[in-house]
Design a protein that fits this description.
Blueprint lengths: L4 E11 L5 E12 L4 E5 L6 H9 L6 E6 L2 E2 L7 E4 L11 H11 L3 H14 L15 H13 L5 E5 L7 H18 L2 E5 L3 H7 L2 E5 L6 E6 L11 H18 L9
Parallel strand pairs: 3-8, 3-9, 6-7, 7-8
Antiparallel strand pairs: 1-2, 1-4, 4-5, 9-10
GO molecular function, one term: ATP hydrolysis activity
Organism: Ruminococcus albus 8
InterPro entries: AAA+_ATPase, ABC_transporter-like_ATP-bd, ABC_transporter-like_CS, ABC_transporter_ATP-bind, P-loop_NTPase
């Protein structure tokens, strides 16, 4: 179950406490196919997370429109799951109850209680159902966050650097687990990352964004066969190509504040 997403001529402008305006996004256009895995990369402050929040319905654009399966996005909806950088687990709930939280909030826990165990197994956390967030590692916590989002059966999963704070070994393990879940569920996935290797390893397409105001500089098709090998010649050649494009995108001048 997956959804197509359309982003058309989207602008997002913020006003700070001093009354200065900052344009985070400018004229962003992007079509995402149902079941596609997309990565957004770009320098810090280029609007990657802003764009993800707009898709989630957590924020609204000043101009343009975002739609899912042809329906305008007007607010949050369980059909779009969101995984934050730090997982944001509820510290007072054990792992099982964290994963079940969305089902309970929607009044579906009684009918779908068996799914909690299924998703615990799916993310490789059998035996940790009664553990609390402070008793597990960062990588395990991110698995819980992903399971908590997926158990609601979203048509799109939005991932805001969920592996950014993990060590390289844990990150590689979680990347593989994420690919397994993507293949199994067919969910449309949109990942924000600063890691070019991660983007190549996971994605069907990579979207390169410019510094503020964030615009789409290039969209790269990742036509490498799966499973991908990080040390392969084609992989390394694509990394070099994307790094060069990324550096070109960063070279574009940033506008000054408007007062």
């Amino acid at each position: 179950m997956s959804s197509s997403i359309n982003i058309s001529q989207v602008d997002r402008i913020y006003t700070d406490t001093d009354g200065r305006t900052v344009q985070a996004l400018k004229n962003v256009d992007l079509d995402i196919k149902a079941g596609e895995f997309i990565s957004l990369i770009g320098p810090s402050g280029c609007g990657k997370t802003t764009l993800l929040r707009l898709i989630a319905g957590l924020d609204k654009p000043q101009a343009g429109q975002l739609s899912i399966d042809g329906r305008k996005i007007t607010g949050v909806d369980p059909e779009r799951g969101y995984v934050f950088q730090q997982g944001s687990l509820f510290p007072w709930l054990d792992i099982g109850h964290n994963i079940a939280y969305g089902l309970r909030a929607r009044g579906q826990l009684k009918q779908k209680k068996a799914k909690v165990g299924e998703y615990i197994s799916m993310v490789g956390l059998d035996g940790f159902e009664k553990s609390y967030p402070h008793q597990i590692s960062g990588g395990m916590a991110q698995r819980v966050a992903i399971a908590r989002a997926l158990i609601n059966e979203p048509k799109a999963l939005l991932l805001d650097e969920p592996m950014g704070a993990l060590d390289s070994f844990t990150r590689a393990d979680l990347q593989d687990k994420l690919l397994e879940l993507w293949k199994e569920n067919g969910t449309t996935m949109i990942l924000v990352t600063h890691d070019i290797d991660e983007a190549i390893y996971l994605s069907d397409r990579i979207v390169i964004m410019t510094p503020r105001p964030g615009k789409i500089s290039r969209v790269i098709e990742v036509d490498l066969p799966r499973p991908r090998h990080r040390g392969g010649i084609e992989f390394l050649a694509m990394r070099k190509e994307i790094l060069e494009l990324f550096e070109l995108a960063q070279a574009q001048p940033q506008p000054e504040y408007n007062i």
